[in-house]
Amino acid sequence: MAIFFLSLVFFTWGLSAQEIIGFESRFYLFALEMWRYGPTWFPTTYQQPYPDYPVTSTFLIYLFACLFGDMNKLVAVLPSALAASLTLVMTFCTGTLHSIRWGWYAVFFLLLTLAFLKSARTIALDMYPALVTVCCFYLVYSADKANKPARAKWIYPLLVLGFLFRGPIGLVMPTGVICVYYLLKLNFKKCFVSGLIALVLLLICTGTLLALAYHVGGEAFLRDVLRMQVLGRIDNSYLPVYFYFVDGMGNYALSFPLAALVTGGMVYIFLYRRRSLPDAGFLLKLVGWMLVILIGMSIPGDKKTRYILPMAPAIALIAAYPFAVLTREKYFSLLRSIILRIFLYFPALLMLATEAVFFYANNRHLDFGIAYLPVVTLLIAMQLLNFLVVFRYINREACLTTWMIMTAALGFVMTYIGVMEKIELSLNQSRHFVAAVEEQRIQNRSRLVFYKEKPDGWPIKYLTQMPHALPRGEQPVFIDDPQSLLEFTSPAFFVTRVAYFNALPTEIVSRFEIVAHDSMGHVQVVVFRRK
After folding, report:
1. 395 exposed, middle or buried (CB, 10 Å; 0-12, 13-18, 19+)?
2. Do the Cβ atoms of 244 and 297 come closer than 8 Å?
3. Residue 11 vs residues 7, 78, 167: alpha-carbon distances, Å
4. Is 40 left (phi over 0), alpha (psi -120 to 50) or beta?
């Protein structure tokens, strides 16, 4: 319970005052439209069904909004944060099947995983298959360990739940982990049966999804759902096969690089030293869990870093191995010593990084909204405590290891929330700009028109930052032709990126005046109207 509630505080701290940025804008718009117009079978944008995602997570946000009586970022992120906290709990439970230390260290390393921490504080649909995957692994492994095979049957409702939240990949990924688990146990019968049942569930769930799509939007929408949730993820190839293996090292640091080193050490000791490691069977199954997601998700052409989030509990458990299992192998002893030495000075390293940000921002006259003094003070206090603990418990290795990993995790979480997230919010802020434009537009009783912009692009971010919703039945207008600007006779505020505005013919530009211009994230935007 302590893990759940403390992590939930970390994952939701300060969110209510934050604005929506980046990719989460799309999911927030889904929730806004359901909050304003009522539940639908598919999430909607511009009151039209959107084919790429199931509606379950949007409906969950809607229920929380109804419970709290308001829609803001905290309400929208709360379901993902709850799923992340439960993922931490289940990772702990999985580790404790061998030792309590393994469970705690895995929790700390999961908090040291950048992609997991970032996803826990945003609207992240991939957090749900991550939770389903760790629950499935726990069920099948604990069923074998406790000799209670009936427990493993609960994986099938979980697979359906994964589909409800994330579509086909929400069912396929945990199924792959289960099948690899049984393969590594050489239990081919259970592997075949589990895979067959999962395939039947996949066909039933997909058939139901397509039937709903046909009911909502006819054959055209059905084809869109099939293309975007299934076929498009396979055919859309623009990144190399090794993308996850390289990109994950940074996005899933610190756990992923350490898990790779542990895996390499395991292979080296087994193949070249011809020795077995303590708890090698469990470690091998965790490596299988990690690799089946990495390799499996590398096959489809469509690759996003967030897609492999279900491997995060596995890499955290693998990364915890050298500290939870004190093997005499020199490789792991050296690895443990190096990491603990880094963790000893980790608060100081984070403090230096924070000070570097301060001097950079000060020299460039940038205001990231970071409370530098409290962050640096806390990091200094943590560093002094590290030295004190080392001096006090120098001969108690277990206490030192636990303290070092725990303070590293807490320092990382604090620095992410207090520094890294603040920088990202500052670089992507647009709330004040949109509010100012909307105030003028409403005063002038003008329509909102986007020029040469795709409805699925950054205009979604504009809509999520609007202080007031458009009148019911009124939607933004999207035009692509310069001549259409002249033909649009109603009062309107035209919004486009600066590059598109500068490309307009001079005779057209002369008929308009600029109302405002600013950046929305990395896009320079200009708002103009007819003179």
Report:
1. exposed
2. yes
3. 6, 8, 25
4. beta
Write down the residue that tokens 């070249």 correspond to: 272
Q: Enumerate long-range contacts of 353-358, CB under 8 Å, 24 or more apart.
A: 353/415, 353/419, 354/379, 354/415, 354/419, 357/419, 357/423
- Nearest one of 429, 412, 329, 323 to 369, comparing CA atoms: 429
Token pair belonging to 300? 């489809």
Cα–Cα dist 127/56, whole Å: 13
Could you tell me the end-to-end alpha-carbon distance of the chain, in angstroms, rounded to an integer? 62
Listed residue (86, 80, 68) closest to 28, CA to CA: 80
- Angstrom CA distances, 20 to 123, 192, 215, 398, stand at 10, 44, 32, 42
E-assigned strands of 343-482? 447-451, 477-479
* Exposed/middle/buried for residue 238 (C-beta within 10 Å: 0-12, 13-18, 19+): exposed
d(CA 297, CA 247): 13
Structure tokens at 372: 């530098």
Q: Exposure of 483 by Cβ count < 10 A (0-12 exposed, 13-18 middle, 19+ buried)?
A: exposed
- Check: CB of residue 31 under 8 Å from CB of residue 20: no
Task: Evaluate if residue 235 carries a pLDDT over 80.
Answer: no
Residues facing 516 on adjacent strands: 527
Q: Residue 496: count other Cβ atoms within 10 Å of its Cβ.
A: 23
Instruction: Express each pLDDT in 176-215 by its tens digit.
Output: 999 999 999 999 999 999 999 999 999 999 999 999 999 9
One-letter amino acid for residue 317 of the chain: L
- CA proximity to 280, closest of 328, 335, 321: 321
β-pair type (447-451, 477-479): parallel
Give the tens place of pLDDT for each residue, 464-515.
998 887 877 788 999 988 888 888 888 999 999 999 999 898 888 888 899 9
- pTM of the predicted model as reported, rounded to 2 decimal places: 0.93
The residues, any chain, with a CB within 8 Å of residue 202's CB and separated by 6 or more, are 163, 168, 171, 172, 175
- Residues ≥6 apart with Cβ < 8 Å to 356: none
